[in-house]
């Protein structure tokens, strides 16, 4: 179990395994959540064997800190520390607020260099810069390619899966993430 501060518990990381089958629980693979809240983390922890939470704002997780710390398959890592846990991940779930934080770029680049191939975006409520109208995926791709990387990731609008045409919440974030993970895994076969 990772510590609150840096996740460096001294335990060896599990061998990286490809996501192969998401037909039913438990879902195989290591999921990294960026910008998730405690309720999302607890719900997903029942479905996957390992979750690393890279919290941009640890305060969001404090109300459920005790419950999260009781789970052996959850690592809590504050974002100001190097999230090396992502090097064994199958999928990185990233909310749009994290995508605009370019401090993540070298960490994601390290993860891709280490063999990671699936990058899953979260919500897209603020997915375009107001001043340019450019979506963050083209910017990410440009920046990664400038480092000699050829990223392969999926732009998945989870928000579309959560809200109906009138803007009312129809599905939970948890349901939308699981659906996206399954579709992305199927497409990768």
Layout: helices, strands, pairs:
Elements: E1 30-34, H1 38-45, E2 50-55, H2 65-69, E3 74-78, E4 91-94, H3 96-99, H4 105-113, E5 119-121, H5 136-146, H6 158-162, H7 173-188
Parallel strand pairs: 1-2, 1-4, 2-3, 4-5
Structure summary:
With 189 residues, the chain is α/β, with parallel strands linked by helices.
Task: Give an account of the 3D structure.
- The chain is an alpha/beta fold and 189 residues long.
- It has a domain at 30-157: 3-Layer(aba) Sandwich (Rossmann fold), CATH 3.40.50.150.
- 31% of the residues lie in helices and 12% in strands.
- It has helices spanning 38-45, 65-69, 96-99, 105-113, 136-146, 158-162, 173-188; strands at 30-34, 50-55, 74-78, 91-94, 119-121.
- The chain has a 5-stranded parallel β-sheet with strand order 3-2-1-4-5.
- Strand 2, helix 2 and strand 3 (74-78) form a beta-alpha-beta unit.
- It is globular and about 45 Å long.
- It starts with 29 loop residues before the first strand and ends with a helix.
């Amino acid at each position: 179990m990772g510590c609150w501060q840096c996740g460096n518990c001294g335990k060896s990381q599990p061998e990286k395994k490809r996501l192969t089958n998401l037909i039913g629980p438990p879902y195989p693979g290591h999921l990294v959540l960026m910008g998730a809240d405690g309720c999302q983390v607890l719900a997903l922890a029942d479905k996957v064997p390992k979750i690393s939470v890279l919290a941009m704002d640890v305060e969001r997780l404090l109300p459920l800190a005790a419950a999260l710390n009781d789970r052996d398959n959850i690592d809590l890592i504050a974002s100001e520390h190097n999230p090396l846990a992502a090097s064994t991940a199958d999928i990185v779930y990233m909310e749009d607020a994290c995508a605009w934080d370019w401090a993540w770029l070298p960490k994601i680049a390290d993860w891709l260099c280490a063999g990671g191939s699936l990058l899953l975006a979260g919500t897209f409520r603020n997915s375009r810069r107001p001043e340019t109208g450019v979506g963050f995926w083209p910017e990410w791709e440009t920046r990664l390619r400038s480092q000699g990387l050829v990223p392969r990731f999926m732009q998945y609008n989870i928000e579309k899966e959560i809200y109906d045409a009138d803007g009312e919440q129809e599905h939970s974030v948890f349901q939308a993430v699981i659906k996206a993970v399954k579709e992305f895994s199927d497409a990768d076969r």
